[in-house]
């Protein structure tokens, strides 16, 4: 006997969520993450409001877990490619993305001729959404070298760009004004 399942792609707080509704499932909700997308398994009859509530709870849990464990260079490359696909139509494809202990003034840098992106090691302890914003910024440089209107339009596709810029401006201010 086949179990009835329905799949639905939704967006919760600007994040993609694949909802898998199952007639077999009666009470429990489970989640995992596949290629940057939250996959939520829920009972068939769970309301949309409850689905969104569970999605937010799991997003928060996954974000907290990710914040505790610094990303490796391989994780950065995978994340950069996922962000490229999601926000920049998959056009920029970096060859490598690495943490750099030699960047003290910049948050990131890009060598467009080699497709290499470097992020300051200081970002490792910052929230994941700040790291993602810097990654999108550097990915945009693989398309547009300057900081003109086209570049700004590309970086604005990431929904937390302004918030991350403000966060980093605060960190920079504190760095320059601490004793």
UniProtKB/TrEMBL annotation:
One of its GO terms (molecular function) is hydrolase activity. This is Metal-dependent hydrolase. Keywords: Hydrolase. Residues 102-162 form the YgjP-like metallopeptidase domain. PANTHER family: UNCHARACTERIZED PROTEIN YGJP (PTHR30399), UTP PYROPHOSPHATASE (PTHR30399:SF1). It holds the Pfam family YgjP-like.
């Amino acid at each position: 006997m086949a179990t009835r399942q329905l799949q639905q792609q939704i967006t919760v707080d600007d994040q993609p969520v694949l909802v898998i509704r199952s007639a077999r499932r009666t009470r429990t909700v489970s989640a995992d993450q596949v290629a940057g997308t939250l996959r939520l398994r829920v009972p068939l009859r769970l309301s949309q409001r409850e689905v969104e509530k569970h999605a937010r709870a799991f997003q928060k849990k996954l974000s907290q877990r990710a914040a505790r464990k610094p990303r490796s260079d391989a994780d950065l490359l995978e994340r950069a490619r996922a962000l490229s696909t999601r926000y920049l139509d998959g056009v920029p494809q970096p060859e490598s993305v690495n943490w750099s202990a030699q960047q003290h003034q910049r948050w990131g840098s890009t060598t467009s001729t080699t497709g290499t992106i470097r992020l300051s090691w200081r970002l490792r302890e910052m929230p994941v959404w700040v790291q993602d914003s810097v990654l999108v910024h550097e990915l945009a440089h693989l398309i547009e070298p300057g900081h003109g209107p086209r570049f700004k339009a590309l970086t604005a596709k990431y929904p937390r760009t302004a918030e991350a810029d403000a966060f980093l401006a605060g960190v920079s201010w504190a760095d320059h004004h601490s004793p």
